[in-house]
Design a protein that fits this description.
2 copies of one chain form a homodimer.
Chain A (H helix, E strand, L loop, with lengths): L2 E3 L2 E2 L8 H5 L2 E9 L2 E2 L2 H15 L6 H11 L4 E9 L16 E9 L9 E5 L18 H7 L8 E5 L5 E4 L3 E6 L2 E4 L10 H9 L6 E4 L4 H6 L2 E6 L3 E7 L12 H15 L3
């Protein structure tokens, strides 16, 4: 796996980097096909919103793109871009002059096949709380780490609820339920991450006969829905079912739903 | 400033370290006098509680102590000890074999004089939320970074409220108010950090005629209190006043209160 730090390989990170000291930074996980980042504009906009929110100077977009391409060493692969506030003397106070650290890392090689299987989701006990930088992918990810630790061997994803028991997200995906032609998903204005694929769905689902709306989702509502779907950079848009349900209570993965999810996923990432 | 990584100087951190990737780790800021860590047992107990909560193997206590002493290069100084889950492949999943990273860093040289001045505190707009590891000093500190950014030039500390407007902590201290002989402080069972000095006060204030209790603290209650006090490793135990108050509304720093805070602070850290 290739890693670049500020464009250079074989570099390590200063222990005083505020990314390590405080999680003072943001990241993006990007899907690349033949070295081309997909839905890049959405990643760049979210990265900039996070950096602006933290007051960290933006890197050059051209540097980010160049480095993501350099670390993407397979035809279909993810790559991670991290930007921290960089090294600094001790304490929370931000120095007057900062030198942000930019890290590009190769990620998971993605399979082009086997995307039709229903993903199995459990429910995590770890709750998700108000985000210090709502919608953005900041480096404070302990909730996700703790929730991910709870996965049973047969889980593909774990649902995270807020302190009132409302479904907010998966440990690494956005969650949707289908009710008629309505695709309902939790708001990301105070909790969680505004997924790039979630954003794409909000903008494009109408043209495919679906009406995407934000809604409070309880586990009960999830169980009654016609289908559960998850979105992320890694999985695209996939049908899912709760593992805790007995088979007869599981949302039916009808051939029509499988086709719908597949068609949306292909349009999202291009069918090539 | 000397920094040791797993006991070695001149070392940097792997970009894949989960401390950087996710804030997957904990830290302690320790006060040392002539190389001796103060209230060490409380720091060690909290560090271990955090590591156990995250499922990160504990380092040897003797290594931590030795390295803190090595980086403490002044007679009265703080030093920071960080333990992360160490480097790992990408993703939230924890590898079956982990090699934690232990970092010891020299910190601020502390002044022995000038500790009687009333600290000026403002109120931060950044709210503090439910902690993923309540009471522990985990590496997800963006809330503190954002709150610290709000400080005005004349602030010595900023208060952080929860989403319901209850006072929870300072950006880098625990908060107390005095009502009669009662010292009231917010609970740390769901929010914030269980400060080592806070713990010492809970255990020892009784012998000094004070009754420490946990209570919901509103800004209104703070304004009506006989005194506001802050505790931390760096400041010990100090009187404070809101900068937003007009002088006639500020809690009086009567000579008796100044003496009380000083006596407690000296007993906390020893008078030597």
């Amino acid at each position: 796996m290739i890693t670049l730090v500020n464009g250079l390989s074989n570099q390590w990170i200063e222990p005083s980097d505020r990314g390590l000291q405080f999680g003072d930074g943001v990241f993006e996980t990007v899907r690349l096909r033949h070295g081309q980042p997909m839905l890049w504009d959405r990643h760049w906009i979210r990265l900039c919103r996070g950096l602006d929110g933290l007051g960290i100077p933006r890197p050059l977009e051209a540097d980010c793109l160049k480095e993501l391409c350099r670390v993407a060493n397979a035809p279909l692969v993810t790559a991670k871009l991290i930007v921290t506030r960089g090294p600094a003397p001790r304490g929370y106070a931000i120095p007057s002059k900062v030198s942000p650290t930019r890290i590009a890392m190769g990620g998971a090689v993605l399979a082009a096949e086997g995307q039709d299987r229903l993903l199995r989701i459990g429910v995590c006990a770890t709750r998700t709380s108000l985000s210090p930088l709502p919608g953005c992918k900041h480096l404070n990810r302990l909730e996700n780490v703790l929730a991910r630790r709870e996965w049973k061997p047969d889980w593909d994803e774990g649902l995270m609820l807020d302190e009132k028991g409302r479904i907010r997200c998966g440990t690494q995906s956005n969650v949707f339920v289908l009710e008629g032609n309505r695709l309902l998903t939790p708001s990301v204005s105070r909790y969680g991450v505004a997924g790039t694929r979630r954003g794409w769905l909000v903008d494009h689902a109408g043209s495919m006969g679906l009406d995407v709306r934000e809604a409070d989702l309880s586990l009960e509502r999830l169980r009654k829905a016609s289908a559960i779907l998850l979105s992320s950079t890694v999985i695209g848009f996939r049908l899912a079912a709760l593992v805790t349900d007995s088979p007869e209570n599981s949302p039916a993965a009808s051939p029509e739903l499988v086709e719908l999810a597949k068609a949306i996923g292909e349009r999202m990432h291009g069918s090539g």
